[in-house]
User: What shape does this take?
Amino acid sequence: MTKIDHSKATLDSAHSHGVVPDVSRAARKTSFDVEDLPVPTGREEDWRFTPVSSLRSFFEDTPADGHVRWVVDQLPAGVSLTEVDPEEAQGLSVRAPGDRVSALAAKHTGAAMVLDIAPSVEVAQPVEIGIKGTGDNVRGQFLIEVGARASATVILDYQGSAKCGEFVSVDVADGASLTLVVVQECDQKSVHLAEWVIRLGRGSKLHSSTATLGGALVRMNTSVAFAGEDSRADLFGVYFANSGQHIEHRTFIDHESPRCRSRVTYKGALAGETARTVWVGDVLIRAEAEGTDTYEVNRNLLLTDGTRADSVPNLEIETGEIEGAGHASATGRFDDEQMFYLQSRGISEHEARRLVVRGFFADVIQEMGVPRIERDLLRTIEARLEDVDD
Amino acid sequence: MSAHETHTLDIRGLKVSVETKEGPKPILRGVDLTVKSGQTHAIMGPNGSGKSTLAYSIAGHPKYAVTGGTITLDGEDVLAMTIDERAKAGLFLAMQYPIEVPGVSVSNFLRTAKTAIDGESPKLRTWMKDLKDVMARLKMDPSFAERNVNEGFSGGEKKRHEILQMELLQPRFAVLDETDSGLDIDALRIVSEGVNRAKEATGAGVLLITHYTRILRYIDPDFVHVFVDGKIAEEGGPELAERLEAEGYDRFLVAT
Assistant: This one.
């Protein structure tokens, strides 16, 4: 078990547990011009855990080949889904892409999809969208625009079989509230590299849950910027990697406004030879972000031998006038004592494992806020666990 | 106890080693002990004498390797059983340091255990009532059932939770490993009453492991065994506990 917990990190003890060659996380290049973002070698801080040699086609500036199908039943009043051309999408994006794959996705998207929630609309029913990619070189950009004081729950369910590079922009305007649920269940050959850039306006709320289960290689690089004061972001993540899967989550919380609160909680389980996960959580508290309150945590449960979980929290603090800043990371195996305790009450080893894994994920799954998806996710995790026992 | 069936837990020549970095280290060096339904045996002795090792060995903790001897329950070979099979056969261990299980609620844990031991799920209405009643008698707040197993419990809450399990799971034999440690006088009384209730209700045999005589004011032992250096050094009735209270364990330590 490796474990760190610095729940009371302050300016004095601001530190980093990984190599951060960037002067600051804020200094990282962003651009819509693909030429500004060179092909990564794998030594860069933001690519060092990713098997870039297997991703050559993703870095090539070639037209897309394949397509993404959006499946939507019926949109409630005040919600629209439209196509815009790449130039318009570029203008709407909350910021430019931060890596070559997403810059290429924006360039070659063809039409970009825009999901728009009109100002002041309170959408009671979740807006559910199935996203199905097909093809070996899929590029796509889409945008979610939440109008001022609007509130909505958006569920994105990724399916299909594709190699897909994606750039997603989310704009949550002043006083708006967005609950976002992203479920990743692409088939076991899929490769999905996505960059999400999220901007939160003054007094807004983001509650985001990500469940990453499918795909041979999935990389989700999510940035949240507090553009206005008194906002709040809660990011939850659940992932399960079996043999042959590489699942990577990167989060960057940019506290650039006063009195914002962020919580990042990601939990993963790994099973089988070569199962691999990466979590890198960057938090930047800028000088102007007084009154910031931030905490991030990552936990990994290694269910078998041969797995590898990397967990890197980074905290940069430029002001001491904050409410709190901390992070924790722990990676460990099934606890023998927990198993003994449960079994000594007559519970079989199989059932005890199920209880422990359910319990491990329980708090993050409960945060999804959509009961049907919570149930499905627990069932999927239990099915994956059954495979481990065989 | 005549209303209950009589069962026998028989320990013969038990030798147990524990895995250490320097290799296996012998702890128990030949223990003989017979416990029958309705009896309470106090196992006393200085720290490091092997009392807890005996408790864990009966329950089947993988850290302890049995290198000789037998444990049988009504003639059935306990050592051949897995951990959960031992619990289903009627053995229960109240632990000195109960383990936290994050994300698993007390109520879910108890119902899962009860279902496993009985081989069928308890009837919901009776179960809820039983749980509520036993918790009330152990002076546990109803909200306790929704907390995660042992997570953030105080020392006293952990021990009450162990005895709650004993009352609900109704074992044939309960091993109580230093259940009295870390309890204030009120908690000790409440927990002891729980043990006595469970015994009365089911006629269970009890193996009460303790360093101090304090708990014996609330739970009357039929037999007292003094453990020294992995063996029973002396046996007797309740009067032996009184003598230990007065003289301590020095007498035995000098003798070895």
